[in-house]
Each structure stands twice: as C-alpha cells, then as structure tokens.
Predict the structure.
Amino acid sequence: MKDRFLRACRRQPTDCTPIWLMRQAGRYLPEYRRLRERYSILEICKNPELAAEVTLMPIRRFPLDAAIIFADLMTPLEAMGVNFELREGVGPIIENPIFFASDIEKLHEPEEEIAPETLQAIRIVKKELSETPLIGFAGAPFTLASYLIEGKGTRDFVATKRFMFSQPKSWHLLMEKLTNVVVKFLKSQVYAGADALQIFDSWVGCLSPNDYREFVLPHMKRLFDEIKDLKVAKIHFGTGTATLLPLMKEAGGDVIGIDWRIPIDEAWRSLDFEVAIQGNLDPAILLAPFEKVSERTLDILKRVDGHSGHIFNLGHGILPQTDPDNVTRLVDFVHSASQRFLQKDG
C-alpha cells in the first residue's frame, strides 16, 4: 500500500504498520560510507544529485514506507548568515555563538529561497519515487537556538538556559526570527514536492514543562499555525520529552514522535489518542542479536494493540554501528508481525 505511511499519519486503517527510520540514509550503509570517502556531509547536502542519491539509498535496499530528504538541521542557519562547520564525531561548531541581543539583530531573515540545493534534491527524488512518500524536515527553533548559543552540541544546555532566563526578551526575539525562517523553509519543501514534514526538536527535553510553556510553546504554536494549511502530514518530534508530550500536542502536529524513554502506550494515553504517534525502539537495540530486536519490537506492537495511527520508528537516529541485515529483518518483521494486531483497531 503506497500510502500506508500517510494513512497512518491521518490515523486511518492500514494493511500493516508503516516503518521508516530516522537517519536511515547514513553511516551504517556501506554505499554511503563509500560516498563519504569522497565527499563531506556539507558537500553532499549542497549537491542536489548526491543528496538525492543518498536519500534513495535506503529505499533501494529496504522496503521502507517513507523516504526522508538528506540534508542537515543547520541548513536554515546558514541562510541566516551563521558560519559553522560540521566536525566528524562532534557535530555542528558555530563560529560566532550568540551572547547578546546585538548578536541576534545581526541574524539575517532571508527573502531569497532557503537551501535551493535541498529543494532541487527534493524535486529529483520525487521524480524517482513512484510509490514512496518523501519527508522534508527542519530543526525546531529551540534546538537551533541551543546550537547558536552553546556554539556546539552539549549535554547540559547551561548557556542556553542562562540566556533564556536572564535575557527573556532577547530569547523571544531569537525564537521569533528562527520561527520565521523555519516556517519559510518548511513551506518551500512542500512546494518542491515533500509529502510530509518532520520538525526535529531534538534537545527540547532538557526543559521542564513550565519552562517549555513560557519559552517554547508560543513559538511552536505559531510555527504549526503557519503551516497548517499545507496539505501534508506534520510530525512533531523530540527526545527526552515524556513530561512535555501534552504541551507538544498543544503546540501542534498530526503525529507526535517519541523516544524510547517512555512506553509507547503511556505516551499515547497522555496524548488522549487524539494524534498519531511515531516510535519508539531504542536505536541501540539494533546492535543486539535479532532475537532481542524482535522481542522489543513485538512489545511495542503489542502496546499499540492495532490502533490506527502508529508509525514504527526508532526513538532517535539509527546508529552507525548498525548491521544493515538487522534493518532488513526489522522492516520485514514490523510489516508481518503488525498484521495480527490490526483486527483489534477501534
């Protein structure tokens, strides 16, 4: 069923549970590693033909139910005049992190098209894909702001929280600018042909519910309000967000993506089953023998119990050490094992 993924996003019945994997086009694939011997991540992102080729790699290898365009979360920041590098094993390194309101004022809100190379890659992929939906994506304003303020990835987000608490007006100005740019980028991906959008708020789980409500929720609500008329599915994803799920639902999204730190049935109940849900196998499980993979996968399917609106995914990106054979077996197992539960829908 070619629209299995999109039907699940709308909480409609499907013949089996759809599955795609975050970072499914990545370093665990030998064909991708060979390409990376010749090109950096940014070089691939800026070459539409290469980005399209990497996007298609996992679709050619596995019977996945959706593709996701190969790009980087930092793409909108580059359009705002932010200089950064993607350092192997470290992630983004910002040349000039934000410290003051004056730094925010320097951020450019582009009138021109954002990341035309990514948009062209979307067009190329859509010509190649006849039956598989394509997901576009962007980093959420909080996650992008954390990179801008910290200057790199972090575990504690101390600089981000200090800025947020001590300079609230500047914080909201930064979030407003980032929201404007992210909205524009998301819209352009849909106009280029994306069938769905995922907004990655990867690091927002560092916040308490009260802080999320004050410093993030208004901007995420505006983001989803401004893309609500786009006729595509919208996925709202975060990690460490077990206490934030009702607020994320309030912010918006047809689908809420969750990580492995909360059982999927508990997460869905906290959302009152009013949105679709995506997740939530621990990526590290794929490093285990397949008996363990199938055991944990079956537990997730049992907890979902055949209710319409579940998209199987990992709780975060697939790990580079993952054996592609385990991915093949996982995709087949989800498709076959889920069918026994679907009669219980409703």
